[in-house]
């Protein structure tokens, strides 16, 4: 329901922006630069989309970018663009340090027609910079990876799927996520992409020890790559 509501709202706002372009072309209803308003509207939509996922920090970043675009034309704050960018960079790094992501992500696993809820032990995130994580789990079933503006490499070469499948849920903003997985894992992707890209390897041959890795989540302006080890 949450994803459906978000898509409906984003779709309506995009349609509204399209109509605004038509009205501006026909009647010149705005004296200023219509493209400034369009770009501001797009980043507001992106920010609202992140807030629908309770990703407050990324949403604020998008709203701040919308403010920077508008301030260049309307001069709400009389500071140079470089100063405003530096202020925003310091502010958001400070927020990321004070309020690290504390969301709890749940998965449901079916046992004898009964759903059991459990929290994951592999919640990986990076906001700025680059980092690498190694998952050494003899009973791997779930991981969550969140990337803001950085790069995250995740290695699963020592992870073992005891059942038939496991899941990795991703949230990629402007950054890049690279997953390094064993050759016997078959990748099934259900990733929603905005302006980002997903690079998946050629499907590995199915063997007796093959396992299925389900990819879910979103890639906004960033990139997701899966590499076989």
UniProtKB/TrEMBL annotation:
Keywords: Membrane, Transmembrane, Transmembrane helix. The chain crosses the membrane at residues 34-52, 59-77, 83-100. InterPro entries: LiaF_TM. Residues 10-105 form the LiaF transmembrane domain. Pfam families: LiaF-TM (PF22570). This is Uncharacterized conserved secreted protein. It comes from Streptococcus hyointestinalis.
């Amino acid at each position: 329901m949450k994803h459906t509501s978000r898509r409906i709202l984003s779709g309506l706002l995009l349609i509204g922006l399209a109509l605004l372009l038509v009205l501006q072309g026909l009647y010149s209803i705005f004296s200023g630069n219509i493209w400034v308003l369009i770009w501001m509207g797009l980043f507001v939509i992106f920010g609202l989309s992140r807030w629908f996922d309770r990703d407050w920090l990324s949403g604020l970043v998008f709203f701040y970018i919308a403010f920077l675009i508008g301030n260049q034309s309307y001069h709400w704050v009389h500071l140079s663009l470089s100063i405003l960018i530096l202020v925003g960079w310091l502010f958001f790094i400070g927020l990321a340090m004070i309020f690290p992501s504390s969301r709890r992500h749940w998965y449901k696993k079916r046992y004898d027609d009964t759903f059991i809820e459990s929290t994951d032990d592999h919640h990986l995130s990076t906001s700025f910079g680059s980092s690498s994580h190694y998952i050494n789990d003899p009973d791997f079933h779930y991981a969550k990876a969140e990337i803001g503006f950085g790069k995250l490499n995740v290695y699963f070469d020592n992870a073992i799927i005891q059942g038939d499948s496991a899941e990795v849920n991703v949230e990629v903003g402007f950054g890049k996520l690279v997953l390094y997985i064993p050759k016997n894992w078959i990748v099934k992707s259900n990733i929603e992409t905005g302006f980002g890209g997903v690079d998946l390897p050629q499907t590995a041959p199915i063997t007796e020890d093959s396992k299925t890795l389900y990819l879910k989540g979103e890639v906004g302006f960033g990139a997701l790559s899966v590499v076989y080890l």
